[in-house]
Amino acid sequence: MSGPEKPKVIGEEWSDERVKSFLFLSPYDARINPDYYVLISAYEGMRAEDFERFIGFFVEAGRDLNAKDSQGETILDHVSRHKRMTAYADILKAAGAKKAAELE
């Protein structure tokens, strides 16, 4: 089995196929922005090095790094609140992600 339905195992190597499989996730609720949903799912399910590869695939696919959730926040807003996750915030910033306030 490969993909987002497989539980996260620390130290396990993820193939490009498994990382890319997150691109095909769909939100359970049509009111949720699909790009935000995919980003938050990847953030919650991947180690930083896999997340960095995922972001490359996400951008290459033409997806929106600055998609917002129902409260108007971007993934960078969300990740930035988690002080121990600076690597993820750095990955997002390097790819061009912005906080919602920067987009206004």
TrEMBL record:
<protein>
    <recommendedName>
        <fullName>Aminopeptidase</fullName>
    </recommendedName>
</protein>
<dbReference type="InterPro" id="IPR047742">
    <property type="entry name" value="PA4642-like"/>
</dbReference>
